[in-house]
Structures are given as structure tokens and as C-alpha cells.
User: What shape does this take?
Amino acid sequence: MRLLPNVMVFAMLAAPALAQAQTPAPPVNATTATEAPATHGGSFKSPDGAERGTLTLTAAPDGVLLRIDVKGLTPGWHALHFHEKGACSDDKFASAGGHVHGETPVTHGLLSVGHNDAGDLPNIYVAAEGTGAAEVYSNLITAQTKDKRPAIFDADGTAVVIHGMADDYVSQPIGNAGPRVACAVIQ
Assistant: This one.
């Protein structure tokens, strides 16, 4: 699996024989774990208001872990981005603003030289029946302000937007990703 700079994608596929095996959870080291990480959620809506899935965001020590479960989307690859405002109030999701970023000018694209767009995430694949799932870790952003990286829970919040096409990871300003087809405010 090829990893993109500063972003990791996790996928797990279990064969039926493996799905039956029960393995205990790894022990928690009491000297390093003091409390459960903060977890937040959101619901994806289409431009017409239909339910399109859920997201769960978990704060990590040096970034965030995002879990996405979607339904009712067109099959194929779709761009996935953090957007700068926690709003999905209009039919084109323009209320979500642009991608989260900490510096200007913004250089989009995980494969671009000089990349600094903190909203960039890997694409999500949607199967023939319209469903998709992914877990994505990003250290380009944090849950709360703790350094110079942008924070999910800043004054105007953050949304996650799914686009109609795949992000090509180099084209400016959004990777040739097409229209916004689903949006979720991180609560």
C-alpha cells in the first residue's frame, strides 16, 4: 500500500474464517493511558437533505482519526476534505467554505511539492451498491488548538465534504474533485 505524505489510510478486510476468530483486545498500558480519547460525530447529508452516512472523529495525541461510513453515493472514488466552517446549510454546501488551511497561499494536493492544505485527505472508494467506508488518520490538523496547525474545533467549526469525483492530489485548488455531493458538520 502506498502511503501519502502525513496521512495514513487504514483498511481491514476479513475472510469469513478470520471473522470467526475471537482475539482479545491488546492490554492498555496504565502508565500511558489516562483517559479515553475525545470522540465526536456527524451525519452526512446530500444536497437534497437525504441521509448519506456518518463520521466519527477521534482526537489523537498528534492529529485526528476519522472514520467514514457512507451510503447512496455513486460508485467509484470520491474526494474527501476537511472544510473550514462547520456548516452544511445550502444545497451546494458553499457554507462549508474552502479547505481547512493554516497558511496562505494554499497549495492543494497530497502529491504536490510545497503541499500545505491541512484539509486534504485520501479519496474514499464507494462500491457498486453505493456504500463505502474508510478510516483515515491525519496529522495535518488537530482537534483542539495546541500548536500552529489548524484545529477542528476553532471558532467556526469544521465540516467534512465528499466530492463527486476523485481528488487527483495535484490540481489546484481542489484536485479536480468536482461538485460537493455530501457534507457533515463535526459535532
Remarks:
- The mean pLDDT is 83.
- The CA atoms of residues 167 and 175 lie 5 Å apart.
